């Protein structure tokens, strides 16, 4: 199994910085006072397509050979990865074939179509998504770009933590949410290379705690019937991602739904930025005192800001 190293993150950054935003790192005096620590938020909610996913998709698309690129790229996704891949493909001038479950949120269908992707709808089961994607790839010869279990995607996601550390130097702890593990594995690769003594702590909703159980049992546990408002964190860990996480992550903790809403609201109210529930999970862990941050300098990756404003949890 091919696992990216920090050299691959550096190569990815050369590509990604040409196309992606170098997102700001923000802090809040009032939140720092509440938690008794210095928190620095890497605002990937302000990234293109509104999420860190653009970094990985961009690296994957621009790393393709000319010959492969001409046949286009393909994936199944109902969310941020679909939009990210569609935009990256448009920037390279190639086709993006996206398989989306027919019950995907309208706002996401519109976004993906708006970036010029060719959408094929399927029934909302994993089996239907995978079989429809296989059919699309057979017909088009497109290269599959998996949302997280992909070498170039992981290396691309690692550029967010690289920028955070370059911009704000030393950290005691760096935190990220975990779903499929693309952001977390990339973050871990960059952090352990640049700051070997910095702890990497991942956070997950208690109602979707497959990564927590996988990490603590050292055996891969699938995500089954997850129930959480943090819709970006529903997927099972990828194989490559899990290997990196076991090797480089210090701990994974879980948080309640109430804490996620509280943290999301705190960031909206105190920092005046819009984040989606998945992004609030690290701060939720701090508010629940699952992570001891007293007197420490902590980096948090705010993964994205895409949510349906008609369905706010507060």
UniProtKB/TrEMBL annotation:
Highest taxon of source: Bacteria
UniProt record similarity statement: Belongs to the serine/threonine dehydratase family.
Organism: Draconibacterium sediminis
Recorded GO MF terms: ATP binding; L-serine ammonia-lyase activity; magnesium ion binding; pyridoxal phosphate binding; serine racemase activity; threonine racemase activity
Protein's name in the database: Serine dehydratase
Residues in Tryptophan synthase beta chain-like PALP domain copies: 19-304
Any one of the GO BP annotations: D-serine biosynthetic process
PROSITE patterns per the UniProt record, alphabetical: DEHYDRATASE_SER_THR
SUPFAM superfamilies, A to Z: Tryptophan synthase beta subunit-like PLP-dependent enzymes
Record key words, sorted: Lyase, Magnesium, Pyridoxal phosphate
Cofactor section: Ca(2+); Mn(2+); Mg(2+); pyridoxal 5'-phosphate
């Amino acid at each position: 199994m091919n696992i990216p190293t920090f050299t691959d993150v550096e190569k990815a950054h050369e590509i990604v910085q040409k196309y992606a935003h170098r997102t700001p790192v923000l802090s809040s005096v009032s939140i720092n006072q509440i938690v008794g620590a210095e928190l620095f938020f890497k605002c990937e909610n302000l990234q293109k397509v509104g999420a860190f996913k653009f970094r990985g998709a961009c690296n994957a698309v621009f790393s393709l050979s000319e010959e492969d690129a001409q046949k286009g790229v393909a994936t199944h996704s109902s969310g941020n990865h679909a939009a990210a891949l569609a935009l990256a493909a448009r920037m390279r001038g190639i086709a993006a074939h996206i398989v989306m479950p027919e019950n995907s949120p309208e706002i996401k269908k519109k976004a993906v179509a708006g970036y010029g992707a060719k959408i094929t709808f399927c029934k909302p089961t994993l089996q239907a998504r995978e079989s429809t994607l296989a059919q699309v790839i057979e017909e088009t010869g497109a290269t599959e770009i998996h949302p997280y279990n992909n070498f170039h995607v992981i290396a691309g996601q690692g550029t967010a933590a690289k920028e955070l550390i370059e911009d704000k130097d030393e950290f005691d702890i760096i935190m990220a949410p975990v779903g499929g593990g693309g952001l977390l594995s990339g973050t871990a690769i960059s952090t352990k290379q640049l700051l070997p003594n910095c702890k990497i702590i991942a956070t997950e909703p208690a109602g979707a705690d497959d990564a927590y159980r996988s990490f603590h049992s050292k055996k891969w546990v699938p995500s089954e019937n997850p129930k959480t408002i943090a819709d970006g964190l529903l997927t099972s860990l990828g194989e490559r991602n899990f290997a990196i996480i076991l090797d480089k992550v210090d701990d994974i903790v879980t948080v309640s739904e109430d804490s996620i809403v509280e943290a999301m609201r705190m960031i909206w109210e105190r920092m005046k930025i819009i984040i989606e529930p998945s992004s609030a999970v690290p701060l939720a862990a701090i508010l629940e005192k699952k992570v001891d941050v007293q007197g420490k300098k902590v980096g948090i990756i705010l993964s994205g800001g895409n949510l349906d404003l008609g369905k706010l949890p507060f």
